């Protein structure tokens, strides 16, 4: 049985540990640059825009987390939830923690009148894809994810004369 609760400051080390575990699973073990201080500021600083939800087993041990933020649908005219990361410890998979985390986010979306909960999944991650399909989620046919990062982001971002600080 899974118990779901908002993350607390004391969860930061566990969340960061699971972020590293997720990076290893996704074959990017050296990609994590996040630090406890960065994660603490993002989740618990002034006006946080990122949220984390924890899954615990019946003994109160943390078994997983969901890290998410609000997005906005210009077509629907309301917010949605973007799930950045969903992770359940390998030994606890199949016990309902992932489903409970996603149900919690869906309940927030319904309660607040948000249009959707959405996320990305690696195309080779068949266990997760099958799990998401079993919940009624469907891939967005015809859509691809694009990302500006690193040198391309720096180069493109410096090519403007508009002040970026005014936009948060």
From TrEMBL:
Pfam families given in the database record: Acetyltransf_1
The entry's keywords: Acyltransferase, Ribonucleoprotein, Ribosomal protein, Transferase
InterPro entries from the UniProt entry: Acyl_CoA_acyltransferase, Diverse_Substrate_AcTransf, GNAT_dom
Residue ranges occupied by any N-acetyltransferase domain in the UniProt entry: 2-158
GO molecular function: N-acetyltransferase activity
Record's GO cellular component terms: ribosome
Family, as annotated: Belongs to the acetyltransferase family.
Name of the featured protein: Ribosomal protein S18 acetylase RimI-like enzyme
Source organism: Pseudarthrobacter niigatensis
Lineage start: Bacteria, Bacillati, Actinomycetota, Actinomycetes, Micrococcales
